Amino acid sequence: MFASAPLTMSLTATDLTCIRGDRLVFDKAALSLSAGQALWVKGKNGAGKTSLLRVVAGLLKPARGSVCWNGIDIREDPDAYQGHCHYIGHQDALKPVLTARENLTFWSTYAGVSRVAEALEIFELSRIADMPAGILSAGQKKRTNLARLVASPAPLWILDEPISSLDTHYIRLFADCLAAHLKDGGMALFATHQDLQVDGVGYLDLNGGGTRE
Ligand SMILES: Nc1ncnc2c1ncn2[C@@H]1O[C@H](COP(=O)(O)OP(=O)(O)OP(=O)(O)O)[C@@H](O)[C@H]1O
């Protein structure tokens, strides 16, 4: 399953406060996830979804509160945490001169695991695998980014708008991929304004400041 991951995994965040510029974005947000669970972060534009995902990914420092992976504050060993976590944000993380295959190989080599061929197949990228990423369509770029989730598996997925630019076929494909990840004992925290059908997902509503429903 997930190399080097402990049998029991947990992600907890408590009392998170985020201030951006001089604005309080959210206050006292809390969440918890264990193996097989997913949480959908909801909220209107500007409610702080991206900010929360970046805080939980360890990319943005909260004004207060903490994020713990298996009970240990992620600030204690950020490198170890990054090894268990895939963050895919709004922006694509592709080098435009490298092909889709080369981009995936770069990421999976960096992570020390290589399931590139499987990732290309699952996200139906084989036909365009050897085209430079810079000339791919928005949806093809998005699928190449998402294929990193399979090319170098990690137990925790943190995904910001993972299905933007995808047509209904690929939204379904992603939903199946997410469901398989959860069935396999993975976890996911994500935000999307679009409709995504995945069973057993919990919700975190930031409109009220970060209270879990
Ligand atoms: N780098 C920054 N500096 C200052 N303020 C910022 C910065 N980035 C975001 N903000 C502000 O933080 C607030 C939350 O932004 P965030 O992107 O987290 O919201 P969001 O819920 O993801 O929005 P959307 O649904 O529009 O993507 C917004 O008011 C935004 O203007």
TrEMBL record:
<dbReference type="Pfam" id="PF00005">
    <property type="entry name" value="ABC_tran"/>
</dbReference>
<keyword id="KW-0813">Transport</keyword>
<keyword id="KW-0067">ATP-binding</keyword>
<protein>
    <submittedName>
        <fullName>Cytochrome c biogenesis ATP-binding export protein CcmA</fullName>
    </submittedName>
</protein>
<dbReference type="InterPro" id="IPR005895">
    <property type="entry name" value="ABC_transptr_haem_export_CcmA"/>
</dbReference>
<keyword id="KW-0547">Nucleotide-binding</keyword>
<keyword id="KW-0472">Membrane</keyword>
<dbReference type="GO" id="GO:0005524">
    <property type="term" value="F:ATP binding"/>
</dbReference>
<dbReference type="InterPro" id="IPR027417">
    <property type="entry name" value="P-loop_NTPase"/>
</dbReference>
<dbReference type="InterPro" id="IPR003439">
    <property type="entry name" value="ABC_transporter-like_ATP-bd"/>
</dbReference>
<keyword id="KW-0201">Cytochrome c-type biogenesis</keyword>
<keyword id="KW-1278">Translocase</keyword>
<feature type="domain" description="ABC transporter">
    <location>
        <begin position="11"/>
        <end position="213"/>
    </location>
</feature>
